[in-house]
From TrEMBL, chain A:
The lineage of its organism: Bacteria, Bacillati, Actinomycetota, Actinomycetes, Micromonosporales. PROSITE patterns: CARRIER. Residues 12-89 form the Carrier domain. It comes from Micromonospora carbonacea. This is Acyl carrier protein. InterPro entries: ACP-like_sf, PP-bd_ACP.
């Protein structure tokens, strides 16, 4: 199944995902966020908020983020999260049985 | 066979009730839970009821497992603590492990084997960044060295989930307690949950197959610990609801029957206030726990802060509520083993473990400033 079939909308493109993530983060943190910004270094995201972000990504994009994918670098920026999501959505195996 | 609908049933409660009976007082005084009780509950999947059916679990929702946890907590907080440890170990494997590790370990945890999770160290309590336990890759093995403290249920455990430093980050490793170099030393006379099998664990050059390392890569310590604690906090919170139910029931029963100055003491206004406060404590703790579980089941990001809130509210309410219950029952509850005496000691520990009340407050304060 392709990404387009699963979500049906423009959100499934890298640019669409990035845009949606930026708007979620800005809404939640009341701070300006750019796709390449280091969210941890700039203090936008704490480890508690990182957990929140993981639950959000799992629900919103119908993926399961587990095992080695939980590493902090995958959530360091909007760009990193976007590539993680595209990878997880690309391989149905990665959705797994978590 | 279980029914096709995966969730906890009235039969599961009855099964626990029949195994537990009137024994918790004796377990508290002896400081020991019978091994066969734990194995029977474990084999039925009840110690970690949220494990998916694909891995041999019951696949319970958080809400259903929460209610069940409260029920066990109302009977015996030591037994509930063992459930918390087992559930936290299972959740950690489920989140941090790869699919082969999930398949291997979750089957054990729903098959009668018992597990504990090791976070705290002599110099690393709330400040887990000070953790000194190391996990090293040596050829086809990983080697674990460290000293863990106050691991709940470790005295009964077959498997330990041990957190430590690994490469440039951290990792969790599954350690059989039978592995050479593992020494489990029971905590003598803990203040509360006396039969929960608290132990200190020494890991001295413990050599394990490389696939013991959950997920196989170094990760960030705060995220690892926060992931594991998410389940622990939720379970402790529901356990505190159970403590409050037991206290409210005992206090109401006593105050309705005990006569002083010619009438039941429940009719004395100062005693009635204790009963009202116990009821309020129980009800508010129940509502915040239900909310946290509903967030968990709905996959809502709010689950993270809702779980911390539930743990904080429920533990504080339980500690205060148990104090009120002792006051109402007075000498009737002033011996070890009594349900209210146990609650008084057990609830105090709940304000300390899985993120102290102060740590919870710091997290909630950070949240309050971030959502303004």
């Amino acid at each position: 199944m392709t990404i387009e079939q699963e979500t049906g909308e423009a959100v499934a493109t890298p640019a669409g995902i990035e845009e949606q993530l930026v708007s979620y983060l800005e809404e939640r943190t009341k701070a300006r966020v750019t796709p390449d910004q280091d969210l941890f270094r700039s203090g936008v995201v704490s480890s508690m908020f990182a957990m929140e972000l993981i639950v959000y990504l799992e629900k919103e994009y119908q993926v399961s983020i587990a095992g080695g994918d939980l590493k902090l670098d995958n959530f360091r920026s909007v760009a990193a999260m976007t590539s993680l999501l595209l990878r997880l959505r690309g391989s149905s195996d990665a959705v797994g049985d978590a | 066979m279980r029914s096709a609908m995966p969730d906890l049933t009235a039969e599961d409660r009855a099964f626990v009730d029949s195994l537990v009976g009137d024994q918790p007082a004796g377990w508290d005084v002896a400081g020991e839970l019978p091994d066969d009780v734990l194995r029977k509950l474990g084999t039925r999947g009840l110690l970690c009821a949220q494990v998916p059916t694909a891995h041999g679990g019951i696949g319970a929702s958080s809400r259903s497992n929460g209610e069940f946890t409260a029920h066990v907590g109302s009977l015996c907080s030591s037994l509930r603590s063992v459930m918390t440890s087992q559930g936290m170990a299972a959740w950690t494997v489920q989140k941090l492990g790869d699919s082969a590790q999930r398949a291997a370990h979750l089957r054990r945890l729903t098959g009668g084997q018992l597990a504990a999770v090791c976070f705290s160290e002599p110099a690393a309590g709330s400040d887990l960044a000070a953790m000194g336990t190391t996990i090293r890759r040596v050829g086809d093995s990983v080697v674990v060295d460290g000293h863990k403290k106050w691991a709940t249920a470790a005295a009964y455990a077959d498997l330990l989930v041990v957190f430590g430093r690994y490469e440039d980050g951290a990792a969790a490793v599954v350690v059989p307690t039978s592995a050479p170099g593992v020494r489990v030393e029971r905590v003598i006379d803990p203040l509360g949950c006396r039969a929960a099998g608290h132990a200190h664990v020494r890991l001295d050059d413990v050599r394990l197959p490389a696939d013991s390392l959950l997920g196989g890569v170094a990760q960030g310590l705060p995220l690892l610990v926060t992931t594991a604690l998410a389940y622990g906090r939720f379970s402790v919170a529901w356990g505190c609801v159970g403590i409050l139910r037991a206290c409210r029931t005992a206090a109401a029963e006593h105050a309705s029957t005990r006569q002083q100055f010619g009438r039941p003491i429940a009719e004395h206004q100062l005693v009635a206030r204790h009963l009202a406060e116990l009821y309020i404590a129980e009800q508010t703790a129940s509502r915040v726990c239900e909310h946290a579980s509903d967030c968990w089941d709905a996959g809502s990001p709010e689950v993270v802060v809702a779980t911390v809130l539930a743990k904080h509210v429920a533990a504080g309410n339980a500690a205060r509520g148990a104090g009120s219950a002792v006051q109402v029952l007075a000498s009737a509850a002033a011996t070890d083993g009594h349900v209210v005496a146990r609650a008084y000691r057990d609830a105090k520990l709940m304000e300390i473990i899985e993120g102290s009340s102060e740590i919870c407050q710091l997290i909630l304060a950070e949240h309050a400033t971030s959502v303004r």
